[in-house]
Write a structure and sequence with these properties.
Blueprint: H1 2-17, E1 21-22, E2 37-43, E3 45-46, E4 58-59, H2 62-81, E5 86-93, H3 100-113, E6 118-123, H4 130-138, E7 143-149, H5 153-158, H6 162-165, H7 168-178, E8 184-191, H8 198-211, E9 215-220, H9 225-234, H10 243-254, E10 259-262, E11 265-267, H11 276-279, E12 283-286, E13 291-294, E14 297-301, H12 305-313, E15 319-324, H13 327-340, E16 343-345, H14 346-352, H15 357-370, E17 374-377, E18 380-383, H16 385-412
């Protein structure tokens, strides 16, 4: 019952908070502070499109992709001209490594003009070859996140990844051969696929433990309303009723060997994670369809890739929509994201919001205390095991809301 209530409330609140307004943010203000932010870059190209994926992506073609990377480098320079400073880079997609030379040139530009400390890049198993690895190393990449999803061959065939990336055995071998090439190698997994049993998931966990992976991220299946229709036709009906059982199996197998970097990310050491929104209070979103959060404003670039390129060729940022969070929304956002990392510094939040954090969110905090979602060990609120799964539910609904927003924008751009 509690899980259903949390799902319903989270779904409603995130749908409300992610109602962006078109054209409100026409230009980003200049920045004069010294805050170090994260630079997120989106590469919306894949060699083939997976049916469960709700991210902004199209089928890769080389000439068009090269034009896109050139526009992306123009966008980076505009942020530099406006005075923004970045200490971390996260490159997501799509498949960022579809053109490794263009990616390297883009990363090297960012490293030249910003004081970058950490770079994380997403990739797929078929790109784990010696050439790509060497170029990524030379470009300063410290963390590589590999989209594995599962090692189960039957599921890989259903979701269209078996032919593209090989069997679970082949993928595991590629991961093994990439160990120690980067500070952190992350296996990006998904649980709660239609038809996935506890036994199937346990086999995935056994392979990961045998590989001795440095970091494992286990996402619950998170799909937009449109993608859910596609999934039902190609893979099967998505059912959340067995999700908690599968999540508890993951925690039971991994918590002996890993620390919680977030409620669904397990790490052997401190490192960047896929949910960069947890580690960075502010981040700029660059690339078509990228979402950023700066100075209390959440904004999105255009999802029209040709329009994105044209805007930057004309020297303009390709902004499409935005939402200015009021103070309550900003506090709620911090509450959600910081606790997703399993603990929240109350003293720091009180200081940030000039003593108003507890006064504003006391109802939310009291409600989660009643259901024993966290414990208070000053100055931190710590998620309990029960609380971790409740936060998985809330973050699942948050990202589903983001995916629904992406679908809306892509529909407006006529690219669905």
């Amino acid at each position: 019952m509690i899980n259903q209530i949390v799902t319903t409330i989270a779904k409603r609140e995130f749908a409300r908070s992610l109602k962006f307004e078109e054209g409100i943010l026409t230009e980003l203000p200049s920045c004069k502070d010294e805050i170090k932010r994260l630079l997120y870059m989106h590469i919306p190209f894949c060699e083939e499109l997976c049916p469960y994926c709700s991210f902004h992506r199209i089928t890769f073609t080389e000439p068009f992709t090269r034009k896109y990377f050139k526009a992306l480098r123009r966008e980076i320079k505009i942020y530099q001209e406006k005075g923004y400073k970045f200490e971390g880079i996260y490159v997501g997609g799509g498949t960022p490594t579809v053109l490794i030379d263009e990616l390297a040139e883009t990363l090297n530009l960012a490293r030249e003009i910003f004081s970058i400390q950490d770079i994380s890049v997403e990739t797929n198993p078929n790109h784990l070859n010696s050439k790509n690895i060497e170029i990524l190393q030379q470009s300063g990449v410290k963390r590589l996140s590999v989209g594995v999803q599962t090692f189960n061959d039957d599921i890989l065939k259903k979701i269209g990844r078996y032919e593209k990336y090989g069997s679970g055995e082949v993928i595991a071998e590629r991961l093994k051969n990439t160990q120690s090439c980067f500070d952190t190698l992350n296996a990006d997994m998904i649980f709660n696929f239609p038809g996935q049993t506890s036994e199937m998931l346990d086999e995935d966990l056994a392979i990961l433990l045998n590989l001795n992976m440095e970091q494992i991220t286990f996402y619950p299946l998170m799909i937009s309303s449109l993608t859910q229709e596609i999934m039902e036709k190609t893979v099967g009906e998505v059912d959340f009723r067995g999700e908690q059982k599968l999540y508890e199996l993951i925690v039971r197998r991994l918590e002996k060997y890993y620390d919680f970097s977030s409620a669904w990310c397990f790490s052997r050491k401190k490192a960047l994670i896929d949910e960069y929104v947890v580690d960075f209070e502010e981040y700029a979103g660059l690339g078509s369809g990228a979402i950023g959060y700066l100075r209390g404003t959440c904004y999105s670039n255009t999802f029209d890739i040709e329009g994105y390129i044209a805007s930057l060729e004309g020297g303009r940022l390709p902004l499409q929509a935005s939402r200015k969070f009021d103070l309550h929304d900003q506090m709620s956002y911090d509450f959600l994201m910081k606790l997703f990392s399993t603990k929240l510094d109350i003293t720091a939040m009180q200081k940030k919001y000039e003593g108003r954090f507890l006064k504003t969110l006391w109802k939310e905090i009291a409600a989660f205390e009643i259901v024993r979602a966290f414990r208070y060990f000053p100055p931190y609120l710590h998620l309990t095991p029960r609380g971790r799964y409740l936060w998985v539910i809330m973050m699942r609904e948050f990202f589903i809301a983001v995916n629904n927003f992406r679908d809306y924008c892509r529909k407006q751009a006529n690219i669905l």
